[in-house]
Amino acid sequence: MARVGKHSAGESSSPSPSPSPPPPDRRPLYFAAFLLLADAALVALIVAFVPYTKIDWDAYMAQVDAFAEGERDYTKIEGDTGPLVYPAGFLYVYSAIKFLTAGQVFPAQILFGVLYIVNLSLVLLLYVKTEVLPWWALGLLCFSKRVHSIFVLRLFNDCFAMTFLHASMVLIIYHKWYLGLIIFSAAVSIKMNVLLFAPSLLLLMLKAMSIKGVFFALSGAAALQVLLGIPFLLSHPVEYISRAFNLGRVFIHFWSVNFKFVPEKFFVSKELAVALLVLHLTTLIVFAHYKWLKHEGGVFRFLHSRFKDATSIQQFIFSKPKLSSLSTEHIVTVMFVGNFIGIVCARSLHYQFYSWYFYSLPFLLWKTPFPTFVRIILFVGVEICWNIFPSTAYSSLLLLFLHISILVGLWSSPAEYPYANGKK
Fold first, then answer.
1. What is the per-residue DSSP string for 359-400?
2. CA 390/CA 381 separation, integer angstroms
3. Which of 3, 119, 245, 355 could form a disulfide with 163 if both were Cys (CB 3.0 to 4.6 A apart)?
């Protein structure tokens, strides 16, 4: 008698149905929606009950007034905190804000509250799409006292720059590279710090696009800068370029959050600036070679493959790499880590600069191999350092230690497979 479940010789068996895939985890999506509603309520309470502190608002409005009155010489557009040092996009954004708010602080706070929620929505979308964090850790994105202050109690232009940056990243993870580059350029036109993401973005473009595609994407970004700057480039081009795109500005030692422990004489020296620039570029190259291009064999093998695979100049210009569809996790990792390297090597971080990288912190921490409790300690430690005012030698030294610890964790973590197509 044949055993149950066994087929005798010559019997055909019907194939068993393949198991259905597990249903997607909806908790991150639901929790993200809850966070948006809860944080919107918190922002409303902050605007209603926490006193506003004027720092740069009056200076912004004075600069906008000078622009509206026809001044096109950047050396003559000033406010009570000094001369205008931002590209032209800043003037257009704050001119629109003044038009909508009549220059009044309270309606501007409401507008920035809406901007805060828009920015948080974009960041949450990036996190939900990458699936790097557990759902509950998304709450960390709403737990910064300093970032709430930067948005709705200070009204800094950093808020608009970073919102545009996060919008460009959302477009890029959906492979809308050309539009993403335009929005990225718009972010740069509001504040130059966004250029810290530029090396990472260029590397991703070379991995995902043809040389022709890279050229046209960069041309579109450059064209936007020219278009926004036309009123100043036609009348006072040298003054505009030297002021709006000045990469050599020296910041005041008192306001430094990260290098307060450095003596002021050394802090303002060219030696420190050059050393940090060399360290920045070296660290980017090392991460690119050993982490971001690990699966391609490193920087030189990747560049060589672009030439080797092309049988003609035309094919080199127009053809994409064999694997070109980048994964969401890889895009976000390279962008966030590249920016964070710039943060670690920055000569001076002021309080509003925290918005440059706060929203990447949970992602970066969960990319490290550290235990969860260590990640939480690092996150809380960074937040505490940014809420000590004025900063001290001890708080800035602690912040630098925390930054380096996170960077070491990122270095020691395994490199993710970069492509959405192909085999791992």
1. GGHHHHHHHS---HHHHHHHHHHHHHHHT-SS--HHHHHHHH
2. 16
3. 119
Tokens matching residue 49: 């009950």
Cα torsion 416, 281, 210, 130: sign: positive
Inside any domain, residue 14: no
Contact 142, 40 (CB under 8 A): no
Q: Is residue 53 part of a domain?
A: yes
Find out whether 340 and 362 touch, Cβ atoms under 8 Å: no
Nearest CA-CA partner of 258 in 359, 392, 162, 409: 392
Q: Locate tokens 């010789």: which residue?
A: 9
Q: Compute the distance between CA of residue 159 and CA of residue 137 in angstroms, rounded to an integer.
A: 23
- Distance in Å from the first CA to the final CA of the chain: 48
Q: Are 356 and 119 in contact (CB under 8 A)?
A: no
Count of CB atoms within 10 A of residue 52's CB?
A: 17
Within 174-289, residue ranges assigned H as helices are 177-190, 198-208, 211-233, 237-244, 264-267, 270-287
If 0-12 CB within 10 Å is exposed, 13-18 middle and 19+ buried, where does residue 412 land? exposed
pLDDT digits (tens, 9 = 90+) for 258-287: 999 999 999 999 999 999 999 999 999 999
CA angle 227, 228, 230 (to 5 degrees): 65
pLDDT tens digits, 152-200? 999 999 999 999 999 999 999 999 999 999 999 999 999 999 999 999 9
- Determine contact, residues 28/129, Cβ cutoff 8 Å: no
* The total number of structural domains that make up the chain: 1
Query: Within a domain: residue 17?
Result: no
- Looking up tokens 């200070």 gives 154
Domain that holds residue 202: 27-412
| Cα 119 to Cα 115: distance, rounded to the nearest angstrom | 6
